[in-house]
């Protein structure tokens, strides 16, 4: 019995922290309509800031708490509202979700920048070692304080929302912003207040939970995934239900941890499962919850899904293969090894196009499918068998259909959350499972945490060498990108886009919506698995870290920033993340800076090693180019260049001369790369100075469309 | 022949009764008008007939077959097509692609792009959207957008077509052309159920009228009969006056 009480007490301690975090999430969602994926990153930043003031600068705890939670957190919340969230007003749910994801990545990058992740930072509990003994149960003061604070937060929130005029207008803002403004309230002030309260709650949860999680950026950031479950139990709107949800979550995890010995389940399966309990509860609540949860349908008004031409896409594919073949001749072997991974990553990026770009289903678990693809190569591709590639696509495809099932009744943010829960479940449990026996066979899914991947042999043709693999990867990428274009041009691709725009119309026109959703997830997960196989083979050895939830988010972000509908954007994502383009560009900039500007060198060096912050910052500007820069900036210019033979000839000629000079040893790799970049990216800018995207009003150069838009405005 | 029939349909949303024992029928080759003041339950009736809203009681029959529990996409394949009052276009696709896509859906899994294209081109021309075939549907003004919905519905080779306020947002000439199109379609044997607030259009094309108010059928008959019905006058004119 005493044991039960002690589990209950520590469970309630965890529950209290989840409750504070989830309350902040629910508060900002109900008042601003933005589901803040960066909530956990805010907690993390709060914990680090407190640590800095309390333990690095040795401020007294009360001063540090007041500075951190009373001054900096609210200021940061206001800054967020003023600088980022205000511009999300009236945009679609996708843009909102993606913007907060980029904020999360940016904050994570920021903390890695400021606080070296390899240093150890002891973070003792409040009143470490002091306990209150009640009936033989020892309750740490830290837990007592946590419970008291949570009670206080609950009362303050309740009073604020129900008893003040401000709270009433806060609740009204979410229903209709302009109406609230007409009635004399100021919606911006209200959102600003809500963001600062939300940020304070996030930071508070971070400071309270940091001692039990160690002060480490990533686990603290993902803490919020646990709070999602509590928030979803409150249907993202009811604070009391959210508190109940947090209690269920905290107690459930703690009892399971305490009594796992008496369960008749193999002990090997348990550790990862315990860590996944919150996401399992999240999945269960999402999938079997009483009423279907419908977010807004995911459509971006400013989005255009242009129909790519066969000539353009096959031309691009052939060009990629040709350039890869030429490059494989001039690049050193070590670079070719590093570059080998861009094709796999590029194919995983391509796999996002059908499901997110055409279908509008926000999938946050693409790297998990890729991980399953790698696992298949590990277990079936021992002698380089091509059959393993088929399994690497087929098994994730089946998994993809399972992941798609919640989409029958969930949409928008709720479905995105279910894919996030799946990704975290794979990260925390499945990929970490130790060797175990099941159905009379030995299973060792992720090979003890590190895969050792053989490259494929095709009928005697080996891709083992770095040169051969580089060219083979380019061919595979080109084929998959042509396949994606074929999907877009087919009747099936039209149906996917149609389903995104209007599910009701699709149903009444005779489309089986469930089959369509299963299909697009099977295709996309299959492609991701195939991409994962190539990605892993490129690296030759892979860890669970390369396929985790965070990598899915980073890849999605790069894809969204570059343009979700274009294969060119996928190539960019592959090169950017696979080759560390970031590192190369900023590293070179750091080299170019004169030595006496040491701070600038340091700045560029840091930017170069911190991909997260670059991706995060780029994502925050999403509101301006919802179609991505490849689709709005690069492609339209290239379409016009292709129509001018002399320009094409000039560009090809210059490239040919540069390549000859490189092969003849007249210039090195860097001048060659710079010439190529200038010719491919900047010359089109000079030849066609005003790209079609130059005028914000005019979505495309087609004069007819412009005329129709004008007449539409007139009506 | 009755191609579509609703028998004694009741639908409640929470405490509100949207349809209360309402019945109607659509004949092949005939145009039936469904009229009534705002909130009478016309769009709910469309949602029930196409399967988007489940019924609390009553039956829906297509070609004499009970389809009350049949999913929307299966009803579409049995020949029921509709347009939406609150436009439900595929805004990311061009006008032609909207219609191709619908034709492909009707062809089922075997829907081939070429076959769908053969159906779509002539249909787009028939409803008068030829000049804007390659414009993104999301950019069209309301009147033309409604025609896209009509073409899209026709692309599924329906036996019965349900039109929810197809003429609102259209100009005078567009309405005349549209009335001509409706008569042609009926002559080809299509059954049409028309919800429309433009009484001139309703009176000129419909052979039969059903009047809904507060979820109940308060009158049914030829346009001339309905026009003289005192309960219709009070329901309709009352509502008109109150809406200014």
From TrEMBL, chain A:
It is found in: Cell membrane. Keywords: Amino-acid transport, Cell membrane, Membrane, Transmembrane, Transmembrane helix, Transport. The chain crosses the membrane at residues 12-35, 55-76, 97-115, 139-161, 189-209, 239-257, 269-288, 309-327, 339-357, 387-405, 412-431, 469-487, 518-535, 670-688. It is a multi-pass membrane protein. One of its GO terms (molecular function) is branched-chain amino acid transmembrane transporter activity. One of its GO terms (biological process) is amino acid transport. InterPro entries: ABC_transp_permease, BCAA_transport_permease, LivM-like. One of its GO terms (cellular component) is plasma membrane. PANTHER family: ABC TRANSPORTER PERMEASE PROTEIN, BRANCHED-CHAIN AMINO ACID TRANSPORT SYSTEM PERMEASE PROTEIN LIVH. Belongs to the binding-protein-dependent transport system permease family. LivHM subfamily. This is Unannotated protein. It comes from freshwater metagenome.
From TrEMBL, chain B:
Keywords: ATP-binding, Nucleotide-binding, Transport. This is Unannotated protein. The keyword Transport applies. GO terms for cellular component: plasma membrane. One of its GO terms (molecular function) is ATP hydrolysis activity. Transmembrane segments: none annotated. InterPro entries: AAA+_ATPase, ABC_AA/LPS_Transport, ABC_transporter-like_ATP-bd, BCA_ABC_TP_C, P-loop_NTPase. Signal peptide: none annotated. The keyword Nucleotide-binding applies. It comes from freshwater metagenome. Residues 4-239 form the ABC transporter domain.
